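JOB MANIFEST
job_type = single_chain_structure
chain_count = 1
residues = 542
[input]
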Amino acid sequence: MRDLRSLLIPLFGAAIVFGCSGAIGEDENLNGGDPGDPGPTSDSGGGGSLDGKVGDGGDDGTKFAGPGTATPFDPKSDGSSGVKLDPGGSVVLDPTDFTGGSQPLIWVANSAAGTISKVDTRTMKEIARYRTGPGSPDPSRTTIGLNGDAVVVNRGGASATKIATNPLDCKGPGGGTSTGPGDVRAWGDDKCVLWNTPFPAGSLGRAAAFDAEKGVDGELSTNVWVGLWTASEMKQLDSKTGAIKATVNVAPIKPYGAAVDKDHHVWVWGGGVGFIDAKTLKWTQIANPPCAYGIAVDAKGRVWTSGGGCVARYTPGPAIVDGKWESMSVGSSNRGLALDGKGSVWVADTNFGVHQVGEDSLAAIKNIPLGGGLNVVGMAIDFDTMVWAIDMNGSKANKIDPKTYTVGSVAVDSGPYTYSDMTGFQLRNAAAPFGKYRQTFKGCGEGTMWKTLGFSAKTGPMTSITVRVRTGKDLTELGAAAWKIAAKLPPDTAPIDLGKVLGDEAKKNYIQVEFVLESESATTTPILSSISVNSYCPPSVK
């Protein structure tokens, strides 16, 4: 086994040194005996034959994955994302890769039409369009969770609506689902619309942001926050059910925009700026920004605002409230803004187009005009780091190549007043580093009984790994199956009794194992070195 005392792993351009604490499931123990994600796409498995045959005697069979086995790790397999391989072939975090499990989508709220457009950012095609509420909902903010699902907040309709991104998750009450802009189903008749949470009439739902908190089931983005402008309140909603879990009074601020940082804070703008501690629900207001209309947070935890003819940046101090604002002059009527994770901030200027500003230099880099008759409100970055500017007057979404500055566009519905993180990139960029690795194994057929899960992994200070499993009789059923938590590292160790975790679900032909790697620091990563699964196959009948 490699000596991890001297292992150096580059993350965020830094070197990471791991101590030996937190060793889980050593190599000798391997026989120890897992919108928006794509389901399993192959019969990947380790060790022995793929069909899981173990001979006539009905003996136990063990399959392996990882360096030195017949099935080396593949950081792009089965919906894995945010991970890469270290020089030895082990899985570690890769904060530069947000794309593996993230679909190339942008969700544009069409205020005048009362709809939201689901657009493929690569093909430039609108692939679905949904009603966002009953009557005239007036949607204006969209926020995308870490699994790719969208929540849209309605101003006039005073409500929030969740829409599934993965067709396998479209289990709402509708009789079908939209197949494009010409197929908008009546309110209540689209099964991809999962829930709608109403708020008091006239409360003006505006700010919206998914968080990056982990639920008891191991899912991230367990909550979505919605700001009610009139009431000066932020509502914490259960992202699965839409139920209101908590209400935080943020007066005198009237929530207009929101963003989340890596330290579990929900930042809110609306006549002032402050933050909610997502763990304690405590509200704290900081000094007012030099200008504001849009709000975003970068990977370093700095808060950005834009408005009027300026862009401003807040760098928190040792105590967050002891930070300072800096600003620069650019544009004349700035609105939304977005960070690309590569050193630039992109700012919408209502009647001009877009400004590119240096994230560290706080200096103008490029001014990009988008033509006449504009009303550019929202900015977004997609998972290919292309830049998007939403033109309300033109009812279109403009896509800008940040290298060549060429511009393309795709038509959406009328009046797209979209001002928020409409791709999910801002949350992924600002949240604490995490990634997931998935491996799928195939058993021997109907008689398969999954027995134990083994693995070799390392966690260090401020890092953790959550292990989940699911099974299915075939790949389709496997992809639709619910996850079950098998272990949390620390403190759990291998081997894991899959019979206890899965119950009768252990008797399926396929099993998928997921390891969610997390770190509270930009300079540390957990390490996954190997996986094994042990199964029983009944004797063949002669």
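[summary]
Confidence is low (pLDDT under 50) at residues 1-39, 41-59.
The CA atoms of residues 221 and 481 lie 19 Å apart.
exit_status = 0
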